[in-house]
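Obj.: predict assembly geometry.
Materials: sequence records (below).
Method: joint structure prediction, all chains together.
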Amino acid sequence: MDPRSNFALLPPLARRTPSRILYVVLDGLGGVIGAEPTALERARHPHLDALARDSALGRQVPVAEGITPGSGPGHLALFGYDPVGVPVGRGLLEALGVGATVGPGDVAVRGNYCTLDAQGLLVDRRAGRLPTPRSRALTARLAAAIPEIEGVRVEVLPGLQHRFALVLRGDGLGAAVADTDPQQVGVAPLAARATDAFSARTARLADRFVEQARALLAGEERANGVLLRGFGSRPSLPTLAELARLNPVAIAPYPAYRGVARLLGMHVLDEPGPGADVAAEVDALERVWDAGYDFFFLHVKGTDSAGEDGDEERKAGVIEEFDAQVPRLRALGPDVIVITGDHSTPGPLAGHSWHPVPVLLHGPWCEPDGMATFDEVHCHRGRLGPALPAPALLRLALANAGKLGKYGA
Amino acid sequence: MDPRSNFALLPPLARRTPSRILYVVLDGLGGVIGAEPTALERARHPHLDALARDSALGRQVPVAEGITPGSGPGHLALFGYDPVGVPVGRGLLEALGVGATVGPGDVAVRGNYCTLDAQGLLVDRRAGRLPTPRSRALTARLAAAIPEIEGVRVEVLPGLQHRFALVLRGDGLGAAVADTDPQQVGVAPLAARATDAFSARTARLADRFVEQARALLAGEERANGVLLRGFGSRPSLPTLAELARLNPVAIAPYPAYRGVARLLGMHVLDEPGPGADVAAEVDALERVWDAGYDFFFLHVKGTDSAGEDGDEERKAGVIEEFDAQVPRLRALGPDVIVITGDHSTPGPLAGHSWHPVPVLLHGPWCEPDGMATFDEVHCHRGRLGPALPAPALLRLALANAGKLGKYGA
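Observations (raw structure tokens):
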């Protein structure tokens, strides 16, 4: 274990206190400084600006300079975990997110319903974004019909639209299996292919599952096949309670982020679900504010979705929607507020990027910069520096909340 | 070994030269930037400001962002040692500080005389801060009466007021033993409790020592018991001579800092002792300036004590007292001057904190900032950056003093 990692530093120092930390992740928040204004620069966000004036600003680096993080590593880093070398498959996050129990040794996979033609070639990788009720019915059918394969327990759980989660429960199942989704139409789905020697059995079980599912779905017009992606097992990670003695709760409407939260041992609120607006999330936050938690993870998805679509105007709109809720957040009186993203998703790039993510830390001893503008350029000049390693952010939040003792005599 | 650590980098590069480095530690120097002025901002320190104009400024991080250092880790980091994973018990520092020899395998402990009532419950954890002469007499009595326990050599050395140091010399003695001081009165002292399997014998010997001491002190009115704290063994560290080919001397009136200096192989001046003013320390520095040393560690305690008491005015006073001596320091003509703290001790927090520590580096190639104000805000903007890892500071001092060769061909 790296002696400078939070795994080594925090457990002996962390102490439980009544102070409360509000940790807001505006997914994909950051943009690229340049000729075009970023979404943060376009948006009017007077409440964020007022908060910024009394906060320390900076830009944080989730993985390493130049490295574009996926959502899993981006969130792990924000929560104090070194994301490097911790494989967190998307399948695992989705499966945990829809409520699956994934134990050590189990393998979790994301499933998509898809449309195949008479020759077995892909016509639509998402089966026309199947409506969720229809998808749930099909998933219930698969779950009932395929309880096990070769003595390995199989669990199939419904997701949103064309999605489901598959969990294989057993011993000796490696998770190093490549996706069966060829990422294009007009070709056949791929066979599952193990990329290490320990995962050959998993690949064979996956192929059997796909085969049996196709047989069961043969009569379906649109959803007559399945694709499997993001094979993953559960990494051995301490929970946030073990790492930092926190009693955390997550308000995260979308499955993958619920999955990250569950992986770290957070309690996850069932409501609100996908599509909720920010006000509904804050309603939920208010309901649990006095329920005994000391760490509140609030996840806002819309910034990332808009950035992925290259729509900076819509991204700015989500920032404005969040800004309008800031007074309600402050009214709760959190001891520490962190507002940042899990990575940047600049509209001009229409995808995740490596650019450092704006961050705002508000707390009693945060050393405010006094800059009343929350955007990339001001954050770059802020007290937290232009390249704060994301795992350091949790330490600063804990320190400001009085939750860390002294290191050494 | 971390290939970027000084342990790997410095030994092959370090070379002995006549140049002299003055390394001043104003203990707990830093404050928190905010609405209230810090002690550095309150104090008038024209000589420090003049020196700052010709120096590079910055803020340094002893352990890691958000981590509050104890004195041991704080000093180790300043002297170029990565403090993480190096357990330096307070008992070890105090024992070395009062002149004990602590070898590999020995266990060092801080002792307190205390007052117990007829039921054996604690009435005063410090025996009314016993006067030092009385304490020395009692310690001599214990030392004479308890030369060994179960064949293990016992050394008892006098400290200040109610304090003494205990060293157990033997093989197979672990140091993972919890304090017997319950940190409150009205209860009995705790039995020594081993926290790992290798330290059970140490705990038993400690209990025997406490028992025998109580029997010997039974007639005392105030000092009729002892408490043991900070069990520690000597970590295996290179000396500063081994690390950087330095021939260092320490002017450090208080035992714990003498202890750190001895741990790193510095010669430690006997005088001045506790309570000395800064001028007396500089007197001592002047006396040894031409004695062949090339690294001079000057430790000023008052800044930390005042900060711990929450007394920013007194802390500012100590800074002003030090400032008045700066012309004498400069008159000696050191090639390199470093002025910093081992951690921050902001008055408003009344204790150590995680905030980066102001640092000033003066040397022929230091790249002066030209800012004639030595305080947290200016240091934050300085050339050394807002978060210089403390172990890098020794490298910069050595480099400016011409004491480091080139890395690689």
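Conclusions so far: The domain at 16-88+237-400 of chain B is CATH 3.40.720.10 (Alkaline Phosphatase, subunit A).
To do: check interface contacts against the pulldown list.
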